[in-house]
Design goal:
The complex is a heterodimer of chains A (392) and B (543).
Chain A (H helix, E strand, L loop, with lengths): L14 E4 L16 E6 L2 E6 L2 H14 L1 E2 L5 E2 L3 E5 L5 E7 L7 H13 L4 E5 L15 H6 L10 H12 L4 E8 L14 E6 L2 E9 L4 H17 L4 E5 L6 H5 L1 H10 L5 H18 L3 E5 H5 L9 E4 L4 H13 L3 E4 L14 H6 L9 H4 L2 E8 L9 H5 L1
Parallel strand pairs in A: 1-3, 7-8, 7-16, 8-9, 9-12, 12-13, 13-14, 14-15, 15-16
Antiparallel strand pairs in A: 2-3, 2-6, 4-5, 10-11
Helix pairs in contact in A: 2-4, 5-8
Chain B lengths: L1 H18 L3 H10 L16 H4 L11 E11 L5 E4 L10 H15 L22 E6 L18 E5 L3 E6 L2 H14 L1 E2 L5 E10 L5 E7 L7 H13 L4 E5 L15 H6 L9 H12 L4 E8 L6 H4 L4 E6 L2 E9 L4 H17 L4 E5 L6 H5 L1 H10 L5 H18 L3 E5 H5 L9 E4 L5 H10 L3 E4 L14 H5 L10 H5 L1 E8 L9 H5 L2 H10 L7 H15 L1
Parallel strand pairs in B: 2-3, 3-5, 8-9, 8-17, 9-10, 10-13, 13-14, 14-15, 15-16, 16-17
Antiparallel strand pairs in B: 1-7, 4-5, 4-7, 6-7, 11-12
Classes of the chains: A alpha/beta (392), B alpha/beta (543).
Subcellular location (chain A): Lysosome
Organism (chain A): Xiphorhynchus elegans
Family (chain A): Belongs to the glycosyl hydrolase 20 family.
Chain lengths: 392, 543
């Protein structure tokens, strides 16, 4: 009896105190996630400026509770002051290479909350399939999904994801990647993609979105009008990566347009032409945007508050890229060293852990432009049968 | 083309065409289930399954296959798997009875129409296949026996109306044939169950086709092991190499030495009771799968020392024991008393003719530090060659296990360190460097070999790494025809350092399927594009 630990009075309540009201809003890049947790004899107090901080604190509190060999739950006297180093801590899931059933997405959101992630980057459509059920363009998923009856996200599915995420303090940033990565858009939107040519004849194959047609921009406006209304977050990810110029080059009408515009043979200028118009459209819808690094690399004119997503994986390259992006005054998001789909044998979590996002050449003002990073789980080799053990 | 042949000649023509296949093939293939008979000359009208059959892709690819374009329809409410009239197996063969139910479920399980029973249905659009008759030809079909290395797994399948016939020498071939038949049955766009008229003559290239699971680094719940046995059967694997204990934990509950798991298991509920072990063995047997347990000694035995004091070698620093332990102590008589009793139990619990004795990665440093062991070395005249001590130990274990009429499998070090093996000891080659040379050495010395080296599937990597497993050609080593015959097969290994029930199945499958086809199908089945097409279908089917 003399050696037993002294048990404090049994704790019956964790008091949660929030100073800024508002339970019904959505989390944003500026949300305050800080909290204080005090566990002492006779009182347990979690205080936070906002509900988002309270969620983080509840997770921490739940991790402090232990159970001894007699089955008694206990908690040590503790004092914690906590806040995130980076405001954007994201996870990318790819539901185009393989469809992920709703339960897989919701389960992922749960585990994100256990790990204090706060952004779900939903790479929802891409070349292989278009599972997003659009109300403005129902044909997109009807013709572009792997199976239009079963492998789609209905409007109510999307609402479920957004609300499930919100309850965990997680933002949902959808990515509708254009002008490349859009093959699945073609069947449901005839005339949207560029017809490729082989020896003066259309080959039957299609390439990126056709940037020279007015119809393209009408379509894009309507689609992003819908996306802006469906997804409440201020930001939309617009993609812009890996645009293959071969098809554009093969198309005579596009070549003619290049001449007209004085772009010569520089197809990056055509890509910029498209992207700039897209950014304008999205801006006018009152949304901010995130783009993959090519948009910056190809010198597209973007707004000052654009977030550049650094993903190209060569070690020196990404650090150089982080320096370049921030030196140019843009915010940066880091994913390059965190492509978790690239599995390898053994404890590869250590490589991911050792990454220091601010380890690049730059002045403190530049470093301040790094808003965070994202772990990416691309779906080429991932579906519901292996997502969870591969990611966590 | 093949289509014209089928339509023009009809059934008689089909069978006649088949007789063109050397009768030798039928007699040798079926009767002896020869460990590694080659396919024999393929007549011109045999063709790749994947090319001819739009649905129903096969994995692994049979040795000889002929399909016609003519399709037959199956009605789930009426179709039955039955014993053929001339079969030596009948209603008393519970192994086949269970297999019939299992395969019916695999084929029609999701169909609502199966519950409609035998009410007369409308006239089918296509000729109906109403049953598959299974005919076992050997006088003793083997319903109640255990599969072994020499079992016959060959089968001959004829799919034509009104009844398909599956002939096999022993029940093991019937199990393989049922799996193939279930792969031939496919659904069309309208939900009808169809099968193309076909004739298949099949047998495995290698007789030992195994999967190694490690239940010591991480405990594997029974469900995981049983699910894995199901997956093995889908891929015609026939050996479950159960690496059941190792350094980290001892989950095997021994009757003679209950302390081994009491003290050595991760916890009291993370064990395999005798009932669990019997369940695994029987579940495997019903799928034609042998269970070869591995009790790896003298190294890899840390967990044994918890429940069996005095078994492991105490390590010394100078003249003082450090408190830590090394491999099994080969110098004490009590070691061999223990092993004699322990392997008596193992020999009676596990019915397979073989036990795997391990013998890999023995670290000599603890032995070297122990004064009694050093003394023993002197007495035996081993000098400072600790490999001789290791061999001394292993030889005595081989003798013990032999005395219980069990054959032994050992890891390659046992052979490399020149222990004296029994003539029928099987050597498992696992070291990746120069494994072809090792195969030459082992078979050159007259021992049977099992290849694992290129198939360590725990070494995951990004992308389609199944291709590199598929591309291995086991017989690519310098050696005579006689030597090549001694390579009895191979094993895909899933070591457990980073594997448990949460990730075993997606990590092992369908990557192990590549190894399954390499070990079953003919040597010339190497086309990666064709394999990809069939493997993608097969994988979805396995789900």
């Amino acid at each position: 009896a003399g050696n037993e630990p002294s048990w404090g009075t049994p704790c019956t309540q964790l008091l949660v105190y929030i100073s800024t009201p508002g339970c019904d809003g959505f989390p944003s890049l500026d949300s305050k996630e800080s909290y204080k947790l005090i566990v002492s004899e006779g009182s347990m107090l979690l205080s936070a400026e906002t509900i988002w901080g309270a969620l983080r604190g509840l997770e921490t509190f739940s991790q402090l509770v232990g159970r001894d060999e007699n089955g008694t739950y206990y908690i040590n006297e503790t004092e914690i002051v906590d806040f995130p180093r980076f405001p954007h801590r994201g996870l990318l899931l790819d539901t185009s290479r393989h469809y992920l059933p709703l339960r897989a997405i919701l389960e992922t959101l749960d585990v994100m909350a256990y790990n204090k992630f706060n952004v779900f980057h939903w790479h929802i459509v891409d070349d292989p399939s278009f599972p997003y059920e659009s109300s403005a363009f129902p044909e997109l998923s009807r013709k572009g999904a792997f199976n239009a009856m079963t492998h789609v996200y209905t409007a109510s599915d999307v609402r479920t994801v957004i609300e499930y995420a919100r309850l965990r303090g997680i933002r949902v940033i959808p990515e509708f990647d254009t002008p490349g990565h859009t093959l699945s858009w073609g069947p449901g939107a005839p005339g949207l993609l560029t017809p490729c040519y082989v020896a003066q004849q259309p080959s039957g194959i299609y390439g990126p979105i056709n940037p020279i047609l007015n119809s393209t921009y009408q379509f894009v406006t309507s689609l992003f009008q819908e996306v802006s209304a469906v997804f409440p977050d201020f930001f939309i990810h617009l993609g812009g990566d890996e645009v293959d110029f071969t098809c554009w080059r093969s198309n005579p009408k596009i070549r003619a347009f290049m001449q007209e515009m004085g772009f010569g043979e520089d197809y990056k200028k055509l890509e910029s032409f498209y992207i700039q118009r897209l950014l304008g459209i999205v801006s006018s819808l009152g949304k901010g945007y995130i783009v993959w690094q090519e948009v910056f690399d190809n010198e597209v004119k973007v707004k000052p508050d654009t977030i550049i997503h650094v993903w190209k994986e060569n070690v020196m390259q990404y650090k150089q890229e982080m320096a370049n992006v921030t030196r140019a005054g843009y915010h940066a998001l880091l994913s390059a060293p965190w492509y978790l789909n690239r599995i390898s044998y053994g404890q590869d979590w250590m490589e991911a852990y050792k990454v220091e996002p601010l380890d690049f050449r730059g002045v403190p003002e530049q470093k301040a432009l790094v808003i965070g990073g994202e772990a990416c789980m691309w779906g080429e080799f991932v579906d519901v049968t292996n997502l969870t053990p591969r990611l966590w | 083309g093949p289509g014209a042949m089928g339509r023009a000649m009809g059934l008689a023509g089909l069978l006649l065409g088949l007789v063109l296949v050397p009768a030798v093939l039928l007699s040798t293939g079926l009767r002896h289930g020869a460990p590694r008979a080659e396919a024999g000359p393929a007549p011109a009208d045999w063709e790749l399954a994947a090319d001819a059959v739009p649905g129903g892709s096969l994995w692994p690819l049979p040795q000889a296959l002929r399909t016609g374009p003519r399709r037959l329809q199956l009605a789930p409410g009426r179709f039955q798997l039955v014993h053929g009239a001339r079969s030596s197996a009948g209603a008393g063969c519970s192994l086949l009875q269970d297999a019939f139910r299992r395969y019916y479920e695999y084929m029609f399980g999701h169909s609502r129409r199966r519950r409609w029973g035998r009410r007369p249905l409308g006239a089918p659009a296509l000729p109906e296949l109403s049953e598959l008759q299974v005919v076992i030809e050997a006088a003793d079909p083997g319903c109640d026996s255990y599969p072994h290395l020499g079992s016959s797994e060959a089968y001959h399948l004829t799919v034509t109306e009104p009844a398909a016939i599956l002939k096999a020498y022993e029940v093991w071939g019937a199990l393989r044939g049922l799996e193939t038949f279930s792969q031939l049955v496919h659904e069309d766009d309208y939900g009808s169950f169809l099968v193309n008229e076909s004739e298949i003559n099949d047998f495995p290239r290698f007789a030992h086709r195994g999967i190694l699971l490690d239940s010591s680094r991480h405990y594997l719940p029974l469900k995981t092991i049983l699910t894995n046995l199901d997956a093995m059967a889908f891929n015609k694997f026939n050996v479950f190499h159960w690496h059941i204990v190792d350094d980290q934990s001892f989950p095997y509950q021994s009757v003679y030495f209950p302390e081994l798991s009491d003290k050595g298991a991760y916890s009291c509920n993370l064990i395999y009771t005798p009932a669990d072990v019997r369940l695994v063995i029987e579940y495997a047997r019903s799928r034609g799968i042998r269970v070869i347990p591995e009790f790896d000694t003298p190294g890899h035995t840390q967990s044994w020392g918890k429940g069996q004091k005095g078994l492991l070698t105490p390590c010394y620093s100078g003249k003082q024991p450090t408190g830590s332990f090394g491999p099994v102590n080969p110098a004490w008589n009590t070691t061999y008393d223990f092993m004699t009793k322990f392997f008596k139990e193992i020999s009676s619990v596990f019915p397979d003719a073989y036990i795997h004795l391990g013998g890999d990665e023995v670290d000599f440093s603890c032995w070297k530090s122990n004064p009694e062991v050093k003394e023993f070395m002197k007495k035996q005249g081993f000098g400072i060659d600790y490999a001789k001590l290791e061999s001394y130990y292993i030889q005595k274990i081989l003798d013990i296990v032999s005395s219980y009429n069990k054959g032994q499998v050992v890891w390659q070090e046992v052979f490399d360190h020149k222990a004296q093996l029994k003539p029928d000891t099987v050597v498992q080659v696992w070291k990746a460097n120069y494994y072809a040379n090792e195969l030459s050495s082992v078979t050159g010395a007259g021992f049977s070999a099992v290849l694992a080296a290129p198939w360590y599937l725990d070494y995951i990597s990004y992308g389609q790494d199944w291709k590199k497993y598929y591309s291995v050609e086991p017989l690519n080593f310098p050696g005579s025809e006689e030597q090549k015959k001694l390579l009895i097969g191979g094993e895909a290994c899933l070591w457990g350092e980073f594997v448990d029930a949460t990730n075993l199945t997606p990590r092992l499958w369908p990557r192990a399927s590549a190894v399954g086809e390499r070990l079953w199908s003919s040597r010339n089945v190497t086309n990666l594009e064709d394999a990809y097409k069939r493997l993608t279908s097969h994988r979805c089917r396995m789900l």
